[in-house]
Amino acid sequence: MAESFFATIKKELVHRQSWPSRRDLSSAVFEYIEAFYNRQRRHSTLGYLSQRNTRESRKPTTEHT
């Protein structure tokens, strides 16, 4: 699974542009993982939901009557 993750980052982020510095690339990778990969990107292993949507759908609901 880790190989798939790194292949995705390379394909969707790293190889799409040139990076002026290692720091710029590092910041972009962090932003990609935190803002997009974990929150928005749909994952086939999660039924094509984002990780955020998967966690939210698993939260117990409380009903007040």
Key terms for this structure?
3 helices; elongated; mainly alpha; 0% strand; 65 residues
Write a structural description.
The chain has 3 helices and no strands. It has one domain (2-58). The chain has helices at 2-12, 22-37, 51-58. Helices cover 54% and strands 0% of the residues. The protein is mainly α and 65 residues long. It starts with a helix and ends in a 7-residue tail after the last helix.
- Helix count from the secondary structure assignment: 3
* Termini separation: 44 Å
Instruction: Quickly give the structural class.
Output: mainly alpha
- Largest sheet geometry: none
Low-confidence blocks of residues:
none
Shape: elongated
Q: Tell me the helix content.
A: 40-55%
Number of DSSP E strands: 0
What percent strand? under 5%
List the helices and strands in order. Answer: HHH
Domains (count): 1
Average pLDDT score:
77
